Amino acid sequence: MRNKDRINPFLNQLKKLWLKEPDLRFGQVICLLQNKMNKDDIFYPEDKEWERTINELLKEKNINDIRDYIVDALANYNDPKVIKHNRNNTIRSIDWDNDKNGITLILNNEDQYYFEIEKLYK
Predict the structure, then answer these.
(1) Which among 1, 58, 73, 83 is least buried, having the fewest CB atoms inside 10 angstroms?
(2) pTM for the complete prediction?
């Protein structure tokens, strides 16, 4: 039988992660972890793998920092097809493409914009 004393420390780390992103629902937190672990099936990973992934995410910037960075980068983006984004047009989600070469920015008004990461960093 597994040691039940492992549960509270694990849940405390999960709590820290969730408090870092309080707007996420529980399922979204689990999906974030699943995506970071690059797993199709979340049934088999051991607790240590989950804990390692949680700790990695705790070290990363939170989504609001990333969102602010992207908003600032978009303000200087030189493509005329792209809106001049401002903080009044709320970002609903930021989705990485499969190769992590670009992002799709989805606004609350359902507009979607794709950006190559290299262009954003210029």
Answers:
(1) 1
(2) 0.52
